[in-house]
Amino acid sequence: MINNKFSEMTKILFLIPIIWILTIALTVTECYSDDLSFEVTVDGNRVALGSSIKLNLTFYGSQNVPAPHLPPIEGFKSQYLGPQTEISVVNGSVSTSITHVYSLLASETGSFTIPSFSVEYKGQTFTSKPILVEIVQEDAARRSPGASGNTSNLEDRIFLILHIDKKEAYVNDVISVKVRLYMDNISVRDIQYPEIDFRSLQSEGFKEPKRSQEVLNGVMYDVIEFETDIFAVHPGEFILGPAELTCNLVTRKKSRQSFFDDDFFDGFFDRYEKYPLRLQSLEVPLTVLDLPSEGRPKGFNGAVGNYKFYLEANPKEVKVGDPITLKMRILGEGNFKTLSPPSPDFSEDEFKIYEPEVQQGKGVKEFEQVLIPKKESVTEIPQISFHYFDTDKRAYKTIVAGPIPIKVNPLAEGEELKVFELPESRDAFRKGEKLGRDIIFIKDNTEKLRRRGSYLYRSKPFIFIQVVPMALIILVSIYQKRKERLETDVRYARRMRAPRKAKKNLAHTKELLGSADKDSRGVFFDAVFKTLQEYLGDKFHLTSGGITADVVKDLAKFDVNSGTLDKLKECFENCDRARYAPKEITQTDMRSTYRLLEEVIDEMERAKL
Amino acid sequence: MRAKVTILTLLCAVLFAASGLCGSVTQAKNIFYLGNVSYDKEDFKDAIAQYEEVLRTGYESGELYYNLGNAYFKNGSLGKAIVNYLKAKRFMPGDEDLRSNLSYARSLIREGVVSPKFSWFESLFLRVVDAFSLNGITLVTACVYFALSAVFILSILFKNLRPKINYAAASLALSLLLCIAIGISKFNGEVLEKKAVITAEAADSKFEPFEDATIFFRLNEGETVIIVDERDNWYKVKRPDGRQGWIKTEVAELL
C-alpha cells in the first residue's frame, strides 16, 4: 500500500517539469505569433575613426528570425558578429527575443546616418528608424568632441604601395621590388607576406620585412617594407601587380560608460576585436629592353650590372701534373643568379681543365677551377676576359685579368706523369678539337648482384670472427704468465708437477701389484714408499729424502684432513712392515696398501691443498 | 634406419632451400640482362621497368644502379638519374665511369650545385672517405685489427722481439684509429644520415610545413639534401649551405 502511494507521487513529480516546459512552449508560440516587433540600436552615437560600434537588430517575440542582409552604410564597414537570444519570465508572462549583432568599423570622419531599412519575415515587413552617428578623430573622441585632424579616411590611414627601382630595365637586369605597408597610428596584427603577380618575370621570395618610419604628405607613418628582386628573361612591356596584402585591423570595442571603462581595466579585459582587411596597391608598368647587339663582345655570357673581376692562382709553383686552383671572383651589383663563369681560352696542350665549382654570396660569386699543367714549358696562366653590360652607361664593358706567372717543375727521374682524367676526355688533346659530353654506356656485369641491405657489419659470422683475436690474446697471455711462473717459482712448479708424477708412479706400482712373486713384494712397497715420498715432497715443497712416517704429524699444519692422515699413516706402517717382516705380507695387504695410496693422493688433490 | 631417414630428409630440405635461393639470383640476373637488352635497343622506359623489377626481387649491385641511373638520364629524369648514381657510388666509389656520369648529370642541375666550403684537412678527409664503400672500409678495418692482434700476440710470446714490434704496433694502432674514423664517417653518411635528391623539376622549400607557408628557397631537380625531420607529407631538409626548410615528400626520393 505504502509502495503504491510512493510510486504515484513519483509519477506526479516527474510530470510537473514536463507540464511546465509545455506551458512555456505554448506561451512562447503564442507570443511569437501575436507580438513580433523589431528594434535597431547602436551602443554609442559617437565613435573614433578606426574604432567600432555595435549595431543590434533585435526581434521580440521570436528566436527564429534569420540574420538580415545589411545594406552598405556610409562611413562604416560592417561585419556580422552573431546572434544573441533571450527568454525572460516576468509575473508569469514569458517573452523571447533574438538580437543579431553587427560590428561597424568607422572608416571616415563626419556625421553619418545609419539609414532606415526593412526586414521581411513570415510575410510581415519590419522597418527600422534611422540613427545618427558621429565619427571623430581618435584624440577628439577621447578628449574634446569637435576637434579636427589631418586624416579622415581609413584608406588614408592604412594603405599599400608597390614600388620598383626602375621603370625601364634590360633583360637579366635586377629590378628591386618593394611593397610598403603604411600605417598611421593604427593597430594591425597578423600581417601576411604580400601576394603579387610578376607575370613571366623571374623572382625569389620576399626577404624578411623591415620596419621604419616615414613622413608622407606631412604625416608620420609606421612602414613595413617587403623587398624582393626580379629579372626578365625576355624583352617586352609588363604590368606588375597589383600587390595584395591581408592583415587584421585591431579595433577598440565601444562600450557604455562604466566603472571599468578605463585604459587600466582594458588591459585586464579583452576589449578589442580584429577586423580582417585586404589591402591592394596600384599596378606598376615596366619596360624590359633587349641587350643591344651592337658592340657585343665575343664570349659575352649575358652578365648585366656593374662588376669587378679578380683572378687568383694558387700554388704558383708546381710539378707537371699537379693541380693549380684558379679562383675567379666577380664582385658588384647585378644578377648573380644567372652569372656564368668567363670561359678561359687555354690551350689544351698546356693545361688539363676541370669544371669550375661555384660559390655565391651577397654581391659576390666565385668560380674555383682546377688546372693541371701538362708541360714544364708552361710559364703563365693566360689572361681571362670578363664581359658584362653596364646598365648605367648602357654599354658593354670588358675586364681583363692576368696573365699570372707560374713555375712548372719537371718530374723527378723515373716518375711518371699522372693526371687524373675522366674517361670521356681521354685522347682529347688534339688542338682545337671540341669534344662532346654525355653519359658513359651501361655496364654488362650482372654477376655482382647481392641481397639488398647485406652489409658486412651486419653479418653474424663476421662479427663472431672479430671476437677470435681478442680471445686469442687472452689465452696467450694466460699461457705465457703460467709458463713464466713455472720457470721462476720452484714451489709452484713442484706443486703443479706433483699430480702428474704421482699418476705415473701409481701406474708403475699397479704393474708391480699384479706380479705374484714373493720377492717382488718388497719392490712393490718400495715403489709405494717412493711414490708417497715424491708426491708429498712436491706437493708441500719438502725434501723428498727426509719424508718418513713421522712426516704425518707435520702435515697436520697444512690443513690435511685427519682421515687422510690416518690413511697415510697406515700406508707408511704397511711399508715399514714389509721392510722388516716381509713374510707376513700377503697379496691382500698389497691391494689394500695400493688402494690406500690411491685414496690419499686423490683426497689431497680434491682438497686443493 | 630412422636416423638415416632423418639425415636424408634434412639434406633434401637444405638442397631445396639452396636451389630456391640460386633460382632467385638467376632470375634477378636474367631480368637485369633483359634490362640491358632494352637499353641497347634505346627502349629506356622498358629498361627502367626491368631494372626496377630486379630491385623488387630483393637484389642490388653497383652496376644495376649505374645502369638504372643511365636509363633515367636518357629518359629525361635528371633527379632520378642522380639518385641512382649516388646509390651506385655506395657500391663502387672508385668507378671512373660512374664519377664521370654523376659529374655530368650534376652539371646539368639548374643554377648549379650549392656546395659548402671545407678546410683543406676536411676536404682531404672527405676525399679519403669518398674512396671507400662501407663494406670496403669495414673489411680494411677488420684486416688492420687482425694484424694488430697478431703483432700483440707475438709481443706477448717473444719478449726479445718487443722493441722491433713496437713500431709496427704503433703504426697499426694509428691505422686502426684512422680506419675507425673513416668507418664512422661513412656509416653516418650512409646509414644514420637520411639524404634525398629532388626529383621534381623544382621544389619550394618553405618556412613551415603548410601549403600556404612562405617560400624560403627553391630547390632544383637533382639537388641533394639532408633530411633532418619528417612530418606527415613533409620533409624538413637541410641544404649543403646549412639553410633549412620544409618540402613535400613527393618532390624528393630517399637515398
Nearest-integer average pLDDT of chain A: 77
The portion of residues assigned to helices of chain B is 55-70%
| Lateral arrangement of strands in the main beta sheet of chain B | 7-6-5-2-8
Q: Write out the CATH superfamily name of the largest domain in chain B.
A: Tetratricopeptide repeat domain
Give the low-confidence spans of chain A: 1-7, 19-34, 141-151, 255-270, 422-429
Per the CATH scheme, the topology name of the largest domain in chain A is: Immunoglobulin-like
How would you describe this structure to a colleague?
The complex is a heterodimer of chains A (609) and B (255). Chain A is an alpha+beta fold and 609 residues long. Chain A folds into five domains: 1-26; 35-142, Sandwich (Immunoglobulin-like), CATH 2.60.40; 154-287, Immunoglobulin-like, CATH 2.60.40; 304-425, Immunoglobulin-like; 490-606. Chain A is built from ten helices and 32 strands. In chain A, strands 21, 23, 24, 25, 26, 28 and 29 form a seven-stranded mixed beta sheet that branches. In chain A, strands 10, 12, 14, 15 and 16 form a five-stranded antiparallel beta sheet that branches. In chain A, strands 1-3-5-4 form a four-stranded antiparallel beta sheet, with helices on one face. In chain A, a hairpin with a 4-residue loop joins strand 28 and strand 29 (395-401). The model of chain A is unreliable at 1-7, 19-34, 141-151, 255-270 and 422-429 (pLDDT under 50). Chain B is 61% helix and 15% strand. Chain B has a five-stranded antiparallel beta sheet with strand order 7-6-5-2-8. In chain B, strands 3-4 form a two-stranded antiparallel sheet. In chain B, helix 1 (2-40) runs antiparallel to helix 2 and helix 4 (78-89) runs antiparallel to helix 5 (96-107). In chain B, a hairpin with a 5-residue loop joins strand 6 (234-238) and strand 7. Chain B is built from eight helices and eight strands; from the N terminus they run ααβααααααβββββββ. The model of chain B is unreliable at 15-23 (pLDDT under 50). Chain B is α+β, with helices and mostly antiparallel strands and 255 residues long. Classes of the chains: A alpha+beta (609), B alpha+beta (255). At the A-B interface, strand 25, strand 32 and helix 5 of A face helix 1, strand 1, helix 3, helix 5 and helix 7 of B.
